[in-house]
Amino acid sequence: MNLCCFRRTKTNRDRGSFFIFTPIKMVKGRQGERIRLYVRGTVLGYKRSKVNQYPNTSLVQIEGVNTKEEVAWYAGKKLAYIYKAKVKKDGSHYRCIWGKVTRPHGNSGIVRAKFKSNLPPKSMVIFKDI
Amino acid sequence: MAPTKERAPRVSRNPDLIRGIGKFSKSQMYHKKGIWAIKAKNGGVFPRHDPKPKPETAAEKPPKFYPADDVKKPLRNKHKPKQTKLRASITPGTVLILLAGRFKGKRVVFLKQLPSGLLLVTGPFKINGVPLRRVNQAYVIGTSTKVDISGVNVDNLDDKYFSKEAPKKKSKGEGEFFESDKEEKKALPQQKKDDQKTVDAALIKAIESVPDLKTYLGARFSLKAGVKPHELVF
Predict the structure, then answer these.
(1) pLDDT (tens digit, 9 = 90+) per residue, B87-105?
(2) CB-based contact (8 Å) between A98 and chain B?
(3) What is the pTM of this model?
(4) What is the DSSP string of A37-83?
(5) Edge-to-edge strand order for the sheet containing B107-113?
(6) Is 2.40.10.190 the CATH number for A39-123?
(7) Do A74 and B101 touch (CB under 8 A)?
(8) Distance, in angstroms, between A40 CA and closest chain B CA?
(9) I need a surface site. Which of A15, B16, B153, B175 has the fewest CB within 10 A?
(10) What CATH number has the domain bearing residue B145?
């Protein structure tokens, strides 16, 4: 079974939604077109029942996916949650938590995902009172 | 031993009813194989050859050195990985989209699969700046666009062609620390540039014969707003 990802998709925090092209050590000063080969998504929360939540599995809304059948294409694809930090690690302010789409969640295209380490609560969408 | 090798392959006289259970019993097989006849020929005893005398080996001296602890040696692993199976959509001449690395998004022509399993790919260099390069199948999308690759000869290109040169061992010395900075940038050997040109020459002809293919290969692939990958047909 081919374990490598066919294509990578990325989840972003809803706030800020920064689009990050992979922080590989690239030639500096490279002027290029912005190539996006990933799909954006939003972290909705952890898998949960009314009163309990299970942080080992997160729920992710992938842009443009609205039905359970469409999720089949994304099953097994890799996810990256990218966030910034003040301290530079490996030469970059950006850090990443890798994960995978595991299965659909419900009928409306939401997806369950497991990450290498559980996603932090600040990754989730925050509803502000109007 | 030549005559024995020329025999027809042995067929068992005892067909399997089910795997592990033969049709004939031990005594029935004794009769079928004709062991009774062989014994009769040999005076009632099954013929037996004495083992050939082994050549004399020199007497082994007990070793001078015994290691202090009995340490287990790990078993040898002779496993050689097979070449990765090539996806059905990727055939020589297919246009591929690279998904990761320096050339991500570039559309590139697939030449052949190397023995290591990696895909040999070229821009062509003049069209989109991608040289002869190895690429992993997992980081690639195969499109349905094919280029005629019959005029291209890639037989001399192998995994060894792409391997890094082993770094020379330098003796430590202060003067050499300064020199090492200069040596880092190695110019591409002329032979590699020539190989690129020969491979690309035939390819570019084939590409220019197809309308718009050249601009297609020169352009990069990117997802845009509202584009859903699961609905795209490559």
Answers:
(1) 999 999 999 999 998 899 9
(2) no
(3) 0.68
(4) -S--EEEEEEEE-SS-EEEEEEEEEETT--SHHHHGGGTT-EEEEEE
(5) B133-135, B119-122, B107-113, B94-98, B140-146
(6) yes
(7) no
(8) 10
(9) B175
(10) 2.30.30
